[in-house]
Design brief:
This protein is an alpha+beta fold and 605 residues long. The chain has three domains: 193 residues, no CATH class; 200 residues, Muramoyl-pentapeptide Carboxypeptidase, domain 2, CATH 3.30.1380; 78 residues, no CATH class. The chain contains 25 helices and 13 strands. The chain has a four-stranded mixed β-sheet. A hairpin with a 5-residue loop joins β8 and β9. It is flat. It comes from Lujinxingia vulgaris. Pfam families: Peptidase_M74 (PF03411).
Length: 605
């Protein structure tokens, strides 16, 4: 099978540093490093040399050539009837893919041509109070999987039918009873239950079970045999990719213990332990099993978006999605403005790998203002993450004829990418004293997510001599990288105060420059009188309590520490320390008890 994503990534990287003609083969290279997102880990140094000026045009040609060859090779390999690789066919407004179509994400999605789950089936039954909600629509894949799972459990064990709750509205979109269920890929399944005599009985509703399997308010117990069989059938169904089976921690443990007791394969138990999961931003799901599947291939090729974990035992179709995106190249750079507009819209919906590179190389310089504006908008949403993309942005920023409305968005794009190569470009602009002050301020803002220790030395070298507005930005970057605050107003401080503070910074740097960044953060905690082992969840309440009173740069670092310790995803930055405090107070209040149980897993990032 062609590993196109890696091939194109390596080719783009080779192109970014090439000096030979584009026909020359590129040397083997390693993939680019991942974006620096965690404040708790030491950043890896990023390369500093800038390629010779003559290399950049050749690099762009090589990238373009690589994209062309990739599109041709993939097109020949995957020219499936339902997967047109011709731009005109893909963008035909009359084209209607067969079957159901899930678009967008589970929280911002829609559903077209849905499948319908019957109110009553041989092995399932929709809960009565849910029938009037008209939430019995989903993708064909999900509906069929529910029917197969219900049948498998019934044929293996007999007993009551599977009871079903919400799926989605006929056209998708928000439902009043959940923040998800918008794209036809979520379904709520009531738990199988046993009565006092141990007989399988249909549950009247979504019944809450406590951690030992007894129902609240009903003489029922959790039917661990059938519920595990249901989970096992879904996890092993080759027609779907299960992203999550949301369930309370206690009921999850009952099912896993049962799976071990009956001798289920170790790899299946390991998979179930990952996918069965108590949600962190919703009730614990002690009254139903919430099933979420990944995008079916045909839907992903139209703009269905997987949000969540990418389990290694599934194929995620990145190569096919990239193949479809590459086929849009003639439309992205052609002379038909309506076709280009549709191509950009479809690219946004598809959100493929290399979207930013395609926009940058094929639509950014459109002679039509409205198309260029649209390209600039999308670049900031889907930034290029290769070194070739970063160098192309550097080339545009160095143009004398760059439209002024494009300059700030290009810096925003570098910040959104947050790759070492993007930061390298922004750093070069920030410390170039020949550039206008406004330009250097934009570069400083683009570096707000750069937590690399190698920023410290050049900041200290430029801090005293920079104009007052830039001094403030440089100091802010210094605080963010080091998690240390000097309390000085660098725009108003006297020369003597600046020199004194700078001397203290240089002394600190000599002492700490060889230490990993995590130790900087540990010292920051010590400054807050927090003396605890790294990762001690018992200190989370204390960490959160410090947030409102901190300088924003320190609050950002403390938020990153909380995220690292808990495993909870959080925004890279907040508008204010108070916002960070509200976010973490709310989340920790819901998850404290679960997280402090030693047996509880960490929340998925």
């Amino acid at each position: 099978m062609i590993r196109l994503l890696l091939v194109v990534s390596l080719t783009l990287l080779g192109a970014s540093c090439a000096t030979a003609p584009h026909a020359a083969p590129a040397p083997p290279l390693t993939p680019p490093p991942a974006p620096v997102q965690s404040a708790a880990l030491p950043a890896q140094p990023s390369p500093q040399p800038t390629p010779p000026p003559s290399a950049l045009p050749e690099a762009i040609l090589l990238v373009d050539h690589a994209l062309e060859l990739s599109a041709q090779s993939v097109g020949s390999a995957w020219g499936l009837p339902h997967e047109p690789l011709d731009a005109l066919a893909i963008l035909d407004p009359e084209r209607r893919p067969p079957g159901s179509l899930s678009l967008g994400t589970i929280r911002q999605g829609r559903l077209l041509q849905p499948a319908t789950l019957a109110a009553e089936g041989p092995y399932h039954s929709i809960i009565e109070r849910h029938r009037s909600r008209n939430t019995h629509y989903g993708t064909h894949e999900l509906i069929a999987a529910v029917e197969r799972a219900a049948e498998r459990v019934a044929l293996e064990f007999g007993g009551a039918p599977l009871r079903v709750g919400n799926i989605a509205f006929a056209h998708g979109g928000p439902i009043p009873w959940s923040s998800s269920h918008q794209a036809g890929r979520d379904v709520d399944l009531a738990f199988y239950a046993l009565d006092a005599q141990g007989h399988s009985v249909p549950t009247p509703d979504l019944i809450h079970f406590n951690d030992d399997g007894h129902a609240d308010g009903y003489p029922l117990t959790f039917d661990v045999t059938r519920n595990w069989a249901l989970a096992r059938t879904l996890l092993t169904d080759p027609e779907i990719r299960v992203q999550w089976l949301f369930v309370s921690e206690g009921l999850k443990q009952l099912m896993l213990d049962h799976a071990v007791a009956i001798g289920e394969p170790a790899d299946l138990i390991e998979r179930a332990a990952s996918v069965l999961h108590q949600p962190t931003d919703a009730p614990p799901h002690a009254d139903h099993l919430h099933v979420r599947i990944g995008c079916p291939l045909a839907d992903r090729l139209e703009g269905c978006q997987d949000w969540g974990p990418r389990w290694p035992w599934y194929e995620w179709n990145d190569e096919r999605v990239l193949a479809r995106a590459l086929a849009l190249r003639p439309a992205l750079s052609g002379d038909n403005p309506e076709l280009t507009r549709r191509a950009l819209d479809f690219l946004e919906q598809l959100n493929p790998p290399m979207a930013g590179e395609l926009i940058l190389f094929h639509s950014f310089e459109s002679p039509r203002a409205e198309l260029r504006t649209r390209a600039i908008e999308l670049l900031q949403k889907m930034p290029p993450r290769t070194r070739a993309g970063a160098l192309a942005i550097a080339r545009h920023l160095g143009r004398n004829d760059l439209p002024e409305d494009a300059r700030q968005p290009l810096y925003n794009t570098l910040a959104a990418a947050s790759t070492p190569s993007a930061f390298e470009v922004a750093r070069a602009r920030l410390f170039d004293t020949s550039l206008p002050l406004e330009e250097r301020l934009l570069a400083a803002h683009a570096l707000r997510f750069d937590l690399s220790p190698e920023l410290v030395s050049p900041i200290l070298d430029h801090l005293a001599s920079a104009p007052a507005p830039l001094r403030a930005r440089l100091a802010e970057l210094l605080y963010r990288v080091t998690a240390r605050y000097d309390g000085l107003d660098w725009t108003e401080a006297s020369t003597a105060e600046q020199n004194q503070s700078l001397a203290q910074w240089r002394l600190w740097w000599e002492q700490y420059r060889e230490l990993p960044r995590q130790q900087w953060l540990e010292h920051a905690l010590a400054d807050l009188a927090i003396d605890a082992p790294w990762g001690d969840l018992r200190q989370i309440d204390t960490l959160i309590s410090h947030l409102p009173a901190l300088h924003p740069a320190l609050a950002m670092n403390l938020s990153h520490i909380i995220s690292d310790w808990t495993g909870r995803w959080a925004p890279r930055d907040f508008n204010s320390p108070a916002d960070a405090h509200r976010y973490w107070t709310r989340w920790w209040g819901k998850n404290r008890d679960r997280m402090l149980q030693q047996s509880a897993p960490q929340a998925w990032r």
